[in-house]
Amino acid sequence: MKAKVHITLKPGVLDPQGRAVQNALTALGFAGVNGVRQGKFIEIDLASSDRKKAEADLKSMCEKLLANTVIENYSIELID
Amino acid sequence: MKAAIIVFPGSNREGDVRDALVAVTGTAPLMVWHRDTELPKVDLIVVPGGFSYGDYLRCGAIAAHSPVMREVKARADKGAAVLGICNGFQILTETGMLPGALLRNAGLAFVCRNVTLRVENTQTLFTAAYNQGQELSVPVAHHDGNYFADASTLDRLESNGQIAFRYVDNPNGSVRDIAGIFNETKNVLGLMPHPENATDGLLGSTDGLPLFRGMVEALA
After folding, report:
1. In terms of CATH architecture, what is B3-219?
2. What residues in B contact A71, CB-CB < 8 Å?
3. Of the candidates A52, A69, A66, which has an alpha carbon nearest to the alpha carbon of residue A78?
4. What is the per-residue pLDDT for B17?
5. DSSP 3-state assignment of B203?
6. Residue A34 C-beta-side C-alpha neighbours within 13 Å
7. Total tally of structural domains belonging to chain A
């Protein structure tokens, strides 16, 4: 079973990298880029085929290591 | 005073901290490898600067879950003094021993220069040798030193006297100019600047020495 985990900065947390990317896009001539927020995308391959257990494990992985919940939100997508 | 320095793959300031401690105590601290789960009994534990685990995932995130950090946390809970410098500060926030987080510098650039700090609280074992409001010249060298915490956490830090140092001229966008903080019981200090690199006239400043001298006196 595979999982896709998206980690994004919480709203209100400054994202200087996103802002730099936004400025670079504008400099390249892409008009109308109102904002860029940069995050992380992590693919995880799980041995388990138990969906419920996988969901619980992934949540725990995000809380313990993958995301810093002081500054980041996460979302988990399971793919059978 | 017995001290230990925790060393991770990618730490690079452990030698500088050792030299600073030798200069004020005359004895070498223990160097403890990150895989060790047993820590000898010491008065002070230093988590030094560097790039533990290559800053993979987030600065300090992987080091925070190494076996030795569980023991460091347990010791701090029992009252041992813990000092986290630069990457060490990032590691202490990732373990939850200190509140908040360190984000990418607001200006995006790696900042490596002397900055002026103001001492905010001298009623601690780390800062007793300074004067309230004293200004210090201490180097910073970091890419992710932009301190962040939510407003209620910041208010709590301020009302509890948990702000250790503020930048006089903020180099990285840190919220409320915060350069270093204590935990609630003031036995844990984390800061982005490098006091160990301001301990000899040859380095351009000796303003970091009172921090080490003060700790030795308090923990003797």
Report:
1. 3-Layer(aba) Sandwich (3.40)
2. 101, 103, 148
3. A52
4. 98
5. helix
6. 0
7. 1
The total number of residues written for chain A in this structure: 80
For chain B, give every domain's residue range.
Answer: 3-219
CATH number for the domain that contains residue A63: 3.30.1280.10
**Residue A71 is part of which domain span?**
2-79
Instruction: Count Cα neighbours of B179 within 13 Å in the Cβ-side half-sphere.
Output: 27
Amino acid letter, B42: V
Least Cα separation, residue B133 to chain A (angstroms): 29
Q: ipTM value of the model?
A: 0.85
Contact A71 B146 (CB under 8 A): no
User: In terms of Cα–Cα distance, which of B103, B134, B97 is closest to B117?
Assistant: B134
- In angstroms, what CA-CA distances link B218 with B57, B126, B138, B189? 37, 8, 22, 14
> Mind listing the pLDDT tens digit for each residue in B149-189?
999 999 999 999 999 999 999 999 999 999 999 999 999 99
